[in-house]
Amino acid sequence: MSTKPLFADIILPVPLPRLFTYEVPDDLVHLATVGKRVAVPFGKKKMYSGVVCLLHHNKPEEYETKPIVSVLDEESLVNAYQLKFWNWLADYYQCTLGEVYKAALPSGLKMESETRIIYNTEFIAESPLSDKENKVLDIIAGKKVCSINDVNQQSGLKNSLPIIKRLLEYNAVFVNEHLKESYKAKTEKVISLHPKCQSEDALQLVFDKLSRAPKQQELLMTFMSMVGGLTGAITNENVAKPELLKKANASQAAIRELCNKEIFLEQERAIDRLDLNDKAVKQANQLSEVQQTAYDEIKDGFQTHDVTLLHGVTSGGKTEIYIHLIEEQLMQGKQVLYLLPEIALTTQITSRLQKHFGNKMGIYHSKFADAERVEIWNNLLQQKNYQLIVGVRSSVFLPFSNLGLIIVDEEHENTYKQFDPTPRYHARDAAIVLASLFGAKTLLGTATPSIESYFNAQQGKYALVELLQRFEGIKMPEIVAVDVREAKRKKQMSSHFTPMLLEKMDEALKNGEQVILFQNRRGFSPFIECGQCAWVAKCVNCDVSMTYHKHLNQLVCHYCNHSIQLPTVCPACHSPAIETRGFGTEKIEEEMSLLYPDHKVARMDLDTTRSKSGYDKLIKKFEDGEVHILIGTQMISKGLDFDNVSVVGILNADNMLNYPDFRAFERSYQLMTQVSGRAGRKNKQGLVVLQTSNPKHPVIMDVINHNFLNHYNGQLEERQLFKYPPYYRLINITIKHKEQPVANRAAHLLAEQLRVVFGNRVLGPQAPVINRIQNLYIKKILIKMEKKASPTKVKHLMREAIFSLQAQQAFRYVTFQIDVDPA
Questions:
Q1: Which of 227, 454, 667, 795 maximizes the CB count within 10 A of its CB?
Q2: CB 424 within 8 A of CB 418
Q3: Is 557 one of the annotated binding-site residues?
Q4: Among residues of the chain, what percentage have pLDDT more than 90?
Q5: What positions does the domain Helicase ATP-binding occupy (predicted)?
Q6: Is residue 560 annotated as involved in ligand binding?
Q7: DSSP code of 194?
């Protein structure tokens, strides 16, 4: 009896709004399961690895199916929870499953015919390779860098993907993302008995021969005791070389001698790059009375709500509460995801959590090499030792199987929002949906809740817990607003610093205390200008001035990274009067070094923390007191705790307040409050000097008075009046084209079509503040939706309007980007 042919719907890493159906050959039917990667032909020449989404017997009518070439995995790489989550993301954020797939998987797990394969020059095979593996490796080694198509053509193989996958596992090759930093498998040297000595008689003979070399004999005895060979059967187990040297108190020379005598065998073995110590873990500290009350209220909140908002002041002890909640979940055999908004935060948090959870904890973020992220993925997939994952927004894509709790720390941060490329998801909102798929709970924690989250708590959608006292009675910092205009009028300013700020810095530094200065602009100065004709250096690709970076002596565009050398004369009038305007972190660092030559000054911004260890080293130096003055952008505001900081300076509060965005006041309040929270610990009340031209601004007054509720109510009133979240949902459509008239025409036609359906809820099109980036002209359309409106219907109508425009030849190359819930 013939059986119906089996078909598979495959998610491919292409931005097309559909799945692709392939036939499963008879010899692969027993291997093909949902969630596995398969190699499939796509188009005339390309080969992709895709993920099986659905298996069925429904042959497509409209086209002839192609067969799957091979199944790449022994076990499913993507689980059912992930596929549900991917579908929700694609639907809610208006992107394709292929785009979600590309965002979700680490690059080491994605292979396609355009992938660049790089030969690992330091590869040493631990066991013989097969003929096909050797053939493929020789081709890659000869070219150093090549594509999968190159390998297929030169090897004569129909599909080399399974072989390349094995070579990746051997660390013989790596894929394009590894170009960011040189890859080398992490190994350690291990010692085992030489095969000639792995019998009782041979070993007895060896001991007899070593009677005249007591140190070598003692070393051998120590080794045997470590592998249990003194009390049991002789095995070929190995011991890490450093551990053996330490335990035997022996020298490298002693081991070398035993290796030369073919008693020991020294080898290298691969170890987990993310290997966290498995020392005895520390029990969670006892909670204070206030913390215990908050903990109990969170537990009560979880009885009635899936989401709880913990509004806790800076230094209120939120992390200790998190540790108790995590401990409880892990004791129940559950998994926990701890989300952080910035990689910078992982340094302090992970060192603290590691003391409690040891090797049950894994870390996941983009500063890790791709191979390290693959290890985390596989560890979770195989349900090995990681029960707690600490990571940034991309951690929501990991293959959890038994999630019990998600903690979203600093939930207000807009860095939880992915801007480019698609999917443009918000990790906080995505985490809530992910938790719901498991029946898990979500805890949102922050000292400065987002307006939307606090509104949801006030409306009863979330449970609300408030922790409004600092831990151990530490006082909230005193915040003083200093009028910069008045200081300038009286000629009291020293460059960009008011007398009060410098006076308080002097006092702190004399007392051996530390200072943080906040300026949310990197570089030396935001732009340069000709003092003669007012010429300003602008980027050739973008409609924006270029930032001067003094250490490079270059002007850099922060949008496309185009850079040029600093001109010595004005290109317009040839005057040498080129002047810097404004100030960034680099300029503040230079001026502080001149003002305080006896104190160590450091800068924390994107330029100084690009490397994997950049954050760690800088934070460690500041913690250890090696750095006295730390200057930074917003990354210094996010939950970092330093015991010895007594003074914080906010150098320019007005920049934040004057940004043209409906969230500008909310963000300014959050940022100033969070930066202020770095001041004062233990026995000392901190001081914050806030430099502004408008000390009576309502946002600044709320920051000074620590009055979140007043700020919240004021913002809520404005949001309701002007139809913004949390009362309305927003969808932003960005239209881009290399020719401005085409972008304008496409935007106007789209707005007209949308107004037919949505009326005056459509705003625009209008040009953004920067209306050309990377030689593409930009227009924006904003749709405001009532909360009760069906988002599915709105998105469908919007998509239809975009598709109808894209079908026209004139707009074929126009880019339409949809951003649901823009941050």
A1: 454
A2: yes
A3: yes
A4: 62
A5: 299-467
A6: yes
A7: -
